[in-house]
Design goal:
two-stranded parallel sheet, disordered C terminus, alpha/beta, 14 helices, globular, 52% helix, 10 strands, single chain
């Protein structure tokens, strides 16, 4: 990978300044409209409020518009600004490159749209400067956060973070808020272990850090959604799911040297929560969140051609099959080939209940608002999916667990 670094001309000895305490990286790709106001606003904010030397690095991910030219000009005009050019796309790649080369003891990044209020920047990095914490993240999902965004992105965000809590047993609340910081010596140990170079980079970094016992500080933030966001949600969601599977497998098999990271640490095999009802409920909630998200995405794709009710039925059928397979393996811990036909075909009650609730909700909506379209249908389907999940767990549990209860007769405790 070829990178090119550009910065302001070096200052003479009479203008010598100490090295930066904080380096803030702004990863960008084709952001010619937002880049200059973002960097100038960030620079002014730091100059007025940050009590230590700082540096701003624009990390350009293979932009093809005027972004590199604007970044170079800003680096020449603003003291403590520089830019890095990467020939490959990927937010994680940009952060990995910029953080790996920084001499600053505290490294941070924020999104170019400045959705997060900059007033939270000093509270974010202060515990790292003092040595109280190892990483810090902004969270939109904690008490005290004030968030302005549409229902679609709100549902997706909460489903994603719910899935992380259920599948990987994480304790932090918001994995993908573009507002994070890390101590440099911690980053030097973490970055070689993080494989992803795109959107899953943040999640992977945090999961590994938490499993190693590193201290993660969370800061509630004020956050306003950028309506011009260019994130392609469906491919990003699928890539994140693949990343979760890969990371979960690596943790479960003890492939990551967590003890070497220097935190309190946990056993490598602790990636899988202990069996029992609480773990099953958490995993069921996680699988259900992904299934609901997939159902909404499939419905949006199928509705134009099949209509509302047929599109819902087709999407629900596919999601039920996939969710049942996932619940069989992850929620109830059933491995191997024994019994899957009975599990998939023997639970029509769960499918019928879901179809009755979602189809009925659509029918009620169209009766009340005959002109209702996808914008109104998707929130209604999301609510109906939640109601269906409350019925689905006992129905599925009754189908999958009976074969395992026979263990009690042999003296092996049932899960």
């Amino acid at each position: 990978m070829r990178t090119v670094r550009r910065s302001a001309p070096p200052l003479g000895p009479e203008h010598h300044r100490p090295g930066p305490v904080l380096e803030v990286v702004v990863p960008v790709h084709n952001e010619e409209r937002d880049l200059e106001p973002c960097v100038r606003r960030l620079h002014a904010h730091l100059a007025e409020t940050f009590p230590y030397p700082f540096r701003i690095t624009v990390a350009d991910n293979a932009s093809t518009d005027r972004t590199p030219w604007i970044a170079a000009r800003l680096a020449g005009e603003l003291p403590g600004a520089q830019w890095v050019r990467l020939e490959e796309k990927g937010r994680g790649r940009a952060l990995h490159t910029a953080w790996s080369r920084s001499p600053a003891p505290v490294l941070a990044y924020l999104d170019v749209d400045l959705s997060t209020d900059l007033a939270a920047l000093l509270p974010l990095v202060a515990p790292l400067i003092s040595g109280h914490s190892d990483l810090a993240i902004g969270t939109r999902l904690a008490r005290g956060s004030r968030v302005v965004r549409g229902p679609k992105r709100e549902i997706i965000s909460r489903c994603y973070n719910g899935l992380l809590r259920g599948a990987l047993s994480v304790g932090f609340t918001d994995a993908q808020c573009g507002f994070k910081a890390v101590r440099r010596e911690v980053a030097e140990r973490l970055l070689p272990l993080v494989e992803d170079r795109e959107w899953f980079f943040d999640t992977e970094l945090l999961v590994i850090a938490e499993r190693a016992g590193l201290r993660i500080h969370e800061v509630p933030v004020d956050w306003v959604d950028d309506p011009d966001s260019r994130v392609d949600l469906l491919p990003t969601a699928l890539a994140d799911l693949r990343g979760m599977v890969r990371l979960g497998r690596a943790l479960a098999r003890g492939r990551l040297p967590l003890a070497a990271l220097g935190g309190a640490g946990t056993a490598a095999g602790s990636a899988v929560p202990p069996p029992g009802r609480p773990a099953r409920l958490l995993r069921f909630a996680a699988v259900g969140a992904v299934g609901a998200l997939l159902h909404l995405a499939l419905y949006a794709l199928l509705r134009p051609a099949a209509g509302a009710q047929a599109g819902n039925a087709l999407a629900l059928l596919l999601c039920t099959v996939l969710s049942t397979a996932a619940d069989r393996r992850f929620t109830f811990g059933v491995r191997g080939r024994a019994g899957p036909p009975a599990h998939h075909l023997g639970g029509p009650a769960a499918l019928l209940a879901g179809l009755a609730l979602t189809g009925g909700a659509l029918a009620v909506l169209h009766h009340a608002l005959p002109a209702a379209g996808p914008r109104a249908e998707l929130p209604v389907l999301a609510a109906a999916n939640l109601a269906a999940a409350l019925l689905r767990f006992p129905l599925l549990r009754a189908r999958v667990l009976p074969g395992r209860r026979s263990r009690r007769t042999t003296g092996i405790p049932a899960s």
